[in-house]
Specification:
The chain has no helices and 11 strands. The chain has 123 residues and is mostly beta strands.
């Protein structure tokens, strides 16, 4: 069992930056692939990016070049650095974990989820 807690959300102007953190509890964090998803009101939850247990990263086309995922296994924490934010990035951002190897970008591929943190980008 893994518990995830997101933090770092808030209100930012377009073009600004935020860094989200996801703190994980569990004794095997380093063996998990970690993902970030987001969900805007009235929309489906969508994939943002992921980092595998060997720190290979994958990103959605909509955020590629602007967002960066990293992990610190010593701190059991994964980060989402968001730069050049746009109003369309406004959403609740969720951290997710999957045991073992990366299994795809679908939400159903992940085993554990945090409660989310709100990111609002003003125009």
């Amino acid at each position: 069992q893994v518990q995830l807690v997101e933090s770092g959300g808030g209100l930012v102007q377009a073009g600004g930056s935020l860094r989200l953190s996801c703190a994980a509890s569990g004794r095997t964090f380093s063996t998990y692939s970690m993902g970030w998803f987001r969900q805007a009101p009235g929309k489906e939850r969508e994939f943002v990016g992921t980092t595998t247990k060997i720190s290979t990263t994958f990103y959605a086309d909509s955020v590629k070049g602007r967002f960066t995922i990293s992990r610190d296994n010593a701190k059991n924490t994964v980060y989402l650095q968001m730069n050049s934010l746009k109003p369309e990035d406004t959403a609740v951002y969720y951290c997710a974990a999957k045991s073992g190897y990366y299994g795809g970008s679908r939400p159903g591929a992940f085993d554990y989820w945090g409660q989310g943190t709100q990111v609002t980008v003003s125009s």
